[in-house]
Amino acid sequence: MRDPALDAVMEALKTVNDPELHRDLVSLGMIERAEVSGGVAAVKVNLTTPACPLKGKIEGDVREAVMAVPGITDVVVTFGAMVRAPSQPALPGVKHVLLVGSGKGGVGKSSVAVNIAAALARDGAKVGLLDADVYGPSVAHMMGQGAAKVTANAERKMQPIEAHGVRFISMANLSPAGQALVWRGPMLHSAVQQFLKDAAWGDLDYLIVDLPPGTGDVQLSLTQTVQVTGAVIVTTPQDVALIDAARAIDMFRKASVPVLGIVENMSYFVAPDTGLTYDLFGRGGSRKLGAEHLLLGEVPIDMEVRKDSDAGVPAVLAHPDSVASAALTQIARNLAGQVSVRSMAQSLQQSLADLPDQLTVV
Prior knowledge:
InterPro entries: FSCA_dom_sf (IPR034904), MIP18-like (IPR002744), Mrp-like_CS (IPR000808), Mrp/NBP35_ATP-bd (IPR019591), NUBPL-like (IPR044304), P-loop_NTPase (IPR027417), YlxH/NBP35 (IPR033756)
Family: In the N-terminal section; belongs to the MIP18 family.
Keywords: ATP-binding, Hydrolase, Iron, Iron-sulfur, Metal-binding, Nucleotide-binding
Radius of gyration: 22 Å
Number of domains: 2
CATH architecture of the largest domain: 3-Layer(aba) Sandwich
Strand content: 15-25%
Subunit structure: Homodimer.
Largest sheet: 8 strands, mixed
CATH topology of the largest domain: Rossmann fold
Number of strands: 15
Organism: Deinococcus puniceus
């Protein structure tokens, strides 16, 4: 016999929408379990990412909807998470490849990539980080593993190094320290292929790729080698950086890679002695890139971020309560949310494509 109270709870949950996907939790399959005992409703929501940026709102909306059911005196909401893979996963075991790029060097792209990866891993996602800046690799140092060496496993695949809950590979861990690489395009393409397909990445929700600056061979090789979910553009607010960021956006457009958002780094500076805010480079300049590109967040200039990078610990872990770390954490969650939105859109498109051309009504 069906439980009328449970049926009423499920009907109430049909009125709760995911704030980003704009569909109700029941039709999205996000209600893993619902139970009613002694007037207390227990609901487990399976989020589309452990780094859901609107988890608090979902919890509040669930509580409000279920508490309105007659006879319910309390609601206990718990969460699980499962990152949904696209119909064609990027690599075996890897659900999403996310590129972090910039039109020019010196905008803090690698620092942003490292902190995004660490923040997603801390939230519970399975994360990999590929340092594709072959000529100027810095990820190994920022992860505190500059002296480590990449080894091969029993299947003769490269075994990523693990630090701070993130699996990563960097050319810095494959070549002698301080040695310059003088490679032409075909060698870069071969290296990118090996990093992606000859590495034992295992099961990953997200593989973050720290690209070299500009719009060159590595970017082209990546977009031709693997199915990319989307790209993040890192820029600083001043016009000279925005001009190059616009070129990077155009490159991804031509390569059919969606730009999931913009990160404005070095956006402003808060004086530690007075608390006054200074817009050293013209805060908000990234909005000139167009309203069609989501601003994932603004990261202030913060000496702790630089110190933490030099010390080999991502700032989101070393100083999680700082303004810069809070901004980077929110950027990571906003990015995860955009990936969920895109995955759902692709799923709906695939469902429509699978429908017969003509439906017969009986």
